[in-house]
Amino acid sequence: MKKTTTDPKQSSDNCVVQKSQWNRLYSRGLKLAARGPRLSLQAISCGPPLSSVTWTRVCLCVCCESSHVSASVFRSLNSDVRLEDDGRCDVDVLDASSLSYQQFLERYAYSRPVVLRALTNNTNFRLLCSKWTLLQEYGGRTVRLSTANTYSYRKVDVSFQEYVDVFLKPQSTEVLGNDTLYFFGDNNMSEWQSLFQNYVSPPYVLPLTSAAYSFGIAGPGTGVPFHWHGPGFSEVIYGRKRWFLSPPDKEPHFHPNHTTLSWLRDIYPSLPEDEAPLDCTIRPGEVLYFPDRWWHATLNLDTSVFISTFLG
């Protein structure tokens, strides 16, 4: 495999790959990287996405002379937290076909989280959530942003286009939660109804509850610190979302105004095993269920599009 040519004035962290090379290099590069330390893959923010069906802005740097494999996916500004690390998964992950609704109620609905694969088919909804499609349809609409702290006080209204252009960027560990604006929830249901009506929600609703949607888009390293509320499902449409969960009687050690990213760097590594929350990353095609009043914090490992179904 030939080494990609780059501008000698640029470092390897600022390489450029032509569109025509993208698919070939990306698929072959990932296969080679999986086989052993033959090349170094580095994904960095570098302008417009190469496909309208992806929200991740990446370049692929192929360094065949490297003796180590390195996959650095959108490291946050001023951060040594490696977002390519999915962490372990302490939550049961099941194919939905292996869990009946009655089994869901008996084993998980009121007692512990679970990740279900192939619970729904949202292929059409995913296409409607591509960056190009959403900006075409909703770019001029107003969205309400919330601060990313445990007790959100501040709300800011901006156009969806401005949110994507200005606010949708990697998170810095130096920024506090009340200074981080996050698009999740506070959706104008009438304006976004044409999109939401195409979403296939999880069929496993709890008795005597109704469902409410909360739709969001966020940059790498963003997330919400620990908080709790009623039960619900969360599905990733694009990207990866890492979840940390703790039962109602086991409040995690955290600061309500520090981001999940800084918590992951400063607190999580030193927690005793018996104090550590459950940890699991979900990807497109997977749905996480969390029971009532479970503490949870989230961290978007990529630019992510996601939707939650709250039951109440």
UniProtKB/TrEMBL annotation:
PROSITE patterns: JMJC. Residues 191-312 form the JmjC domain. InterPro entries: Cupin_8 (IPR041667), JmjC_dom (IPR003347), JMJD6_ArgDemeth/LysHydrox (IPR050910). One of its GO terms (molecular function) is cis-regulatory region sequence-specific DNA binding. It comes from the Eukaryota. GO terms for cellular component: nucleus. This is JmjC domain-containing protein.
